[in-house]
Design brief:
The chain is α/β, with parallel strands linked by helices. The protein is built from twelve helices and twelve strands. Strands 6-7-8-3-9-10-12-11 form an eight-stranded mixed beta sheet, sandwiched between helices. A four-stranded antiparallel beta sheet has the order 2-1-4-5, covered by helices on one side. Helix 7 runs parallel beside helix 8. The longest helix is centred in the middle third of the chain and has 18 residues.
Length: 330
């Protein structure tokens, strides 16, 4: 077996007050991503998807910290690295594409200069060579007339072009791992499709591994090979995209699919998930999805179920996964 490029082990993120954990946001999360793998993470807003990526990048917001667990990249303990050493990995080894380019891009610096900054700092390129590489990266991401647009400021470009600038910045140093925090959320469907194709091509050409966070199941189905479903800070199901979306074994995954439109069945009635996600400051006992789950039994409120193998390479954290499977066959 190929050793994982990124390994997140029993990661718990939260907020401390007076030196003690007060609110747990992500709990006991484990993910392995192999070199070249395209891995998606889906779930509702507030499930902890973006915070998990930010923990890998060392960009947790103020007040949120790693309470326990580990993050290993290519055999290196990221949490144990000095800050300077970890920063040196960001760019040539690990890069991140943020959700909103208008807040991630510097509004007073030309986009070409922003792309060139990474290669100058990390690869030691001259100003001229870095500028040329910036134009090449813009062309590679499908930006028309890249030499002219490299002299533009962010506000002079459309949302789709700004997102491609973010991609060009992220891949300019040839990273081995690309962290994508909902990079297509603000884009229309046509531009979203184009951006996803750019990401797929970059991964295929350079062997880059992709960690893709989104709330859109269709995006994961189009872009990723493997996936995890998160709810209230827990991974509740994981496996190949084909297995998880084609044979869901957790009621939350099934609920997401039932509430999403299916263009192959345009007359199918959409069924919303009842209720709301739990308040993480007052977590319910047992399975966090139990209050919203039509499959819940008394045992579901006793303890958080562990993820177990339900099929080869397919895990689910549900005591009633067999009932869900049987219901799908009925």
């Amino acid at each position: 077996m190929v050793a994982p490029l990124l390994s997140v082990s029993a990661l718990t993120l939260g907020v401390r007050r007076r030196g003690r954990p007060d609110t747990v946001i992500v709990e006991d999360l484990s993910i392995d991503i192999a070199p070249g793998e395209r891995f998606g993470v889906v779930g509702e807003s507030g499930s902890g998807k973006s915070l998990t990526l930010r923990a890998v990048a060392g960009l947790l917001p103020a007040g949120v910290e790693v309470l326990s667990g580990g993050i290993t990249y290519d055999g290196k303990d990221l949490l144990g690295l000095p800050a300077a050493a970890r920063r040196r990995l960001m760019g040539p080894e690990i890069a991140m594409i943020f959700q909103e380019p208008m807040t991630a891009l510097n509004p007073v610096v030309r986009v070409g200069d922003q792309i060139a900054e990474g290669p100058r700092r990390h690869l030691g390129l001259s100003k001229g060579d870095a500028a040329q590489l910036a134009v090449e990266m813009m062309a590679r991401t499908g930006i028309p007339d890249p030499a002219r647009r490299a002299r533009a400021y962010p506000h002079e470009l459309s949302g789709g072009l700004r997102q491609r600038i973010m991609i060009a910045m992220a891949v300019s140093c040839g990273p081995r791992l690309l962290l994508c925090d909902e990079p297509t959320t603000a884009l229309d469907v046509t531009v979203q499709h184009q951006v996803l194709k750019v990401l797929e091509a970059l991964c295929a050409d350079g062997g880059t591994a992709l960690a893709f966070v989104t709330h859109d199941l269709a995006v994961v189905n189009q872009t990723c090979t493997d996936m995890a479903v998160m709810y209230a800070g827990h991974i509740v199901e994981s496996g190949s995209v084909r297995d998880v979306l084609g044979d869901p074994r957790h009621p939350y995954t099934k609920g997401l699919l039932d509430s999403a439109p299916d263009f192959d069945q345009p007359d199918r009635r959409l069924v919303p998930i009842p209720g709301f996600p739990p308040n993480l400051a007052a977590r319910p006992s047992g399975c966090p999805f139990a209050p919203r789950c039509s499959f819940a039994v008394d045992a579901c409120t006793a303890a958080v179920p562990a993820r177990e193998l339900v099929a080869p390479g397919h895990t689910a954290a549900c005591r009633e996964s067999d009932r869900i499977f049987e219901g799908a066959l009925a």
